[in-house]
Design brief:
The protein is mainly alpha-helical. It folds into two domains: 34-380, no CATH class; 434-566, 2-Layer Sandwich (Transcription Regulator spoIIAA). Helices cover 65% and strands 6% of the residues. The model is unreliable at 1-10 and 441-459 (pLDDT under 50). The chain crosses the membrane at residues 41-62, 74-101, 113-132, 144-166, 186-208, 215-234, 270-290, 302-325, 345-374, 395-426, 464-484. Keywords: Membrane, Transmembrane, Transmembrane helix.
Length: 567
Amino acid sequence: MDQIRRETHQPVRPTFSELFTPKLVTVLREGYTLEHFRADAIAGLTVAIVALPLSMAIAIASGVTPERGLYTSIVGGFIISALGGSRFQIGGPAGAFIVLVAATTARVGVDGLLLATIMAGIFLLVIGYLRLGTYIKFIPYPVTVGFTAGIAVIIFSGQIVELFGLKLAGKEPGPLVPKLMAVGEAAGTINLSATFVAVLTIVAIALLKRWRPKWPAMLIAIGLASVIVALLSLPAETIGTRFGGIPRSLPWPAFPSVSLARMIDVLPDAIAFALLGAIESLLSAVVADGMTGRRHRSNCELVAQGFANIASALFGGICATGTIARTATNVRAGAHGPVSGMIHAVILLVLMLVVAPLASYIPLAALAGVLAVVCWNMVEKQAFATLLRTSRGDALVLLATFLIVVFRDLTEGIVVGFVLGSILFIDRMAKSIAVEPDQSLVPEDVADSASAYDSSEASDADTVVYRISGAFFFGAASTVGTVLDRIADQRKNFILDCSAVPFFDSTAANVIEGAAHKARRAGVRFIIAGASPQTRRMLINHGVKRPLVTYAASIRDARAQLAGNRE
């Protein structure tokens, strides 16, 4: 069957197994050697060292205890690598989720958060199995840049209290402006020890990244800060003083309390988790593809994300997704395939079992410093500046997304940015279409001049030939319709060349039908030349057929039809 499709130039649709076979299976089929395992083990260790402090920092910033971030990286990260559609994807808690998770936890508690995460996992399974993952790529680039920058601003604003050791009068507000006002009111409570620890952590990370880029800068900086706080007995709050440390084992899986009312209550959160998880994970997979030249399976990746979120919540973890920074670290560390991500999860489990008591000494200001560095790295500064100065339309989409994410809501920012980007695309596509005389029929002195085409100079006094170039859809209907109404009754014969039209929609078909009726009333013979089978089918379904029009494979065939009628 595939051979027949190839011979008839029909597209070969991938089978279910081709779409949803995990990359782990693909890698093992190719032949997995000891050398490959060694490369994956080194990469897995490297990523685990990076993920250890990040997982705890993101969990704390999300309003939950630090061990829940580790549970997410261990359970969710293992499943994402084992079942995913990307060779190099590293899963775990992501900074982009901090705002959503924190808001959900504050509103419905940890139990509601776990239920929302399970529901989000189910939604991701549905999105993946319905093969909707391919549509995520339609999100405009300015939207992703503005969204990421907005997330970075929100995350950083949430770390100001920990960076300076402030004591707020009440609960920290969620929205940016009230949060900054509360921070300003608490400026007099600054803890110089916490500030020193945060600055030390940031400076240490920056210096290590510059002078020893292959060293685990974040882990070394946090270790240095922890030692200094312990030796000097600095009055800086630590994981131990606030949370009492972290457990030394994974909990048994358990379902959160479930009821219809509870599910309805957390439904908006679950939808937001699923959409953001799909976007974040596929963007991460695209980044990995760009670094390696490989291609990921988007729908398979979403299915893996779904199972990972369900499992993560059952073990007490938070939302899991593909993480761009850790995935890029995995690629740079020389990973061969998904085994590196699985090893990263296993190493995190071992580290949690072994060094859990030491985690109590980690200063919260140091973790806030780590997140401050993450926020700085999240902002695509060069891309942001380029979009602002190269195109007004892209700048509008970028700024609208960024400002709405910062001052309103993450989901609203994505939706508004996507709508504005779509309108901008429609406008550009509408302006790109052209309706012009066929230049092969225009005398050289006219074709080379800037003057408008005079149909009276055509080689055939009874026939006018025009060509449409570009996608003909509702956005271009008014422009094309105006031209067709003007020329459809100029001669005895009107040939419309559609060979350069890749796409027709119903609005375009309706415009052609109107022009055909006008030509028939004027006694003009209307021939459509070069239309693809799909275009012809669309036109015929909308009534553009005999006796209104006839079809020809090319302009030459159309002229042959006319010559035959004259004979």
